Amino acid sequence: MGLDRKVGFTAGLKYQGGGPMLAWILHRISGLGMLFFVGLHVLASFFTQQFGSDWAIAVNTIYESFWFQTLVIFFVLFHALNGLRIIILDLRPELLQYQREAIWLQWAVFIPLYGLTVFLIIRLGLSGG
Amino acid sequence: MRGKVVQPGFNFEYLMWIFTRISGLAMIILALIGLIAAFSYGARNQMDIGALMRWTFFPNPNHVVSSNIPDLEPNWANAFWQVMQMLMAVFGVTHAANGLRVVVEDYLRPSFWQPFIRGLIFLLWLFLLIVAIYVILAS
Prior knowledge:
heterodimer, B: mainly alpha
């Protein structure tokens, strides 16, 4: 919580954290991204439902486009799987020594699931679905 | 202190740490229930992923009116799915507001402004919760 780290921005960029750091950064970015677009989407749903506003329909049109869905499904799937890994390792701390293997396992689940989903999204999107 | 297990204090940070884990698991389970229901009600025919996600996370008749699932009224417009949506809204908004607080406070040391930032995030939490529950009850 607000520690005085005395680490500069460029020094932070040079830090070689590997897999766990990538998972941490992606968890943070995907969480903030979901907060941003789900929050906007709740507002857009409210304005569509009550007033049929143009801007709300425009927001939902962006959300329904297939290129945006590929990003959203990445955020949702990654955040869910990474969160599940964090919960399991928190409940069984003796497994923490296998954290890097757990992250490899997580990617091994994520990549086929996400790849198949993106294939379906793009196929449906290009065929005008 | 040797041989003693240090008990965590029952404070705000500890409560939110537990809540984040429980709500995360709960949202995964709620989403799986919604996904299975959407498939069993007919989402397997010609549905794009966005529509499927709208059915999975927020099965609101108003929210999903553009998707082509038949029999919207008998299957989805009832109290059970309204309760499921409210659970999803409460867990999701609270999990997200707490996550935002953790990320923001990671980059700011405690200062004069901290209570104001916490107050702003609290207002955002309350606002999104009220709007989401209004959308559920008004549809």
